[in-house]
Amino acid sequence: MSTAREIYEGELWRLPVRERRQALAKAVALADAEGDLDLGFEIRMDLISESHGSPDRLAQVAAYGWCLARHDEDPDRFPVDLWYYKWIPGAIAGSPAVSRAQIHALLDDLAMRFDSGAKESPPVVKLRMRAAFDLGDEEEAAELFDLWMARRQEMGRSRLDDCRACDIAEEASSLRRFGRHDEAIEAGLPLTDGNQGCASEPHYALANVLESARAVGAWDRAAAWQRRGLDLIENDPDYHDALADHIRHVAIAGTRGIAADGTSTYQVVPDQIRAALSLAANALPTLDGDEEFDFVFYRGVRVALVAADAAAIESEQVSELHAAVDGKAESLAAAFDIRSGNSSTSDLLRRDDRELEAGIA
Asked: pTM higher than 0.70, yes or no?
């Protein structure tokens, strides 16, 4: 049987990313069984990095919590990287079992470690804004957005800031969530129409902008953004949440019948809806069970199935998708609503229904 170090220093870095995470998790378990704290710390830090942006977020949370505890016991021996801490609030908020109080307590601990002055820095304000969005606190999110923009101007950039591409994507996504769609499109242009980017952008920006494009009737631009976005993410299971935006868009566009000049003719196009169903069916087997990722994905598939039923599309694929996902978006939305103390997650499904009805009617 291989030791933790043999796995860690072996061939795992040549594996596909999902298999690499599994190998790292196995190496962590072996290091713990061998009682090697230092190796366990080293492997966990790599597991945290490899799990960023993936549906394996519970493993990321557990690994970072372990590392942070060791750091507090012996900071010199276990020099934890605070950069990784930024990923943890969103990861725990992705489970409806985590309470509001736990999310805010984590953010308070993060802020204490990040900031020594009286003012919270842009990275901390940005994370509080994301939490407000996650918890359905729209007014608080709007206040924190304004504060984040002001602090960025006032305090400049620090080592703990996200890269410029990620900040652009965050700004555009926030404006979209506020319904400020023209501003969202304009803010995201350096990513959607320019050359800026990073490891995860414009992957998300090209998905998020589709809702704003529909809202302002920019169907031709949306089609171009979608083609580019799908080229980046279609076969990558770590982008199921972005793929769900593409599935929703293709299905909604299929209920409108977009003419060559980009106008909406409100004539159902079954081939468009079938394309959305195929995207969903191809990605479904690779879901990992992360509740937030699953909700976002099931939400997208739900839209495609409502559109398929309205267009009287009957196929084995439609039947299989109904059997696999029916009711799951609603049940997860209800769980998140209970955690948040409002109906913000279920409201997303109702908004989808209204957008579909505009075309189906």
From this structure: yes
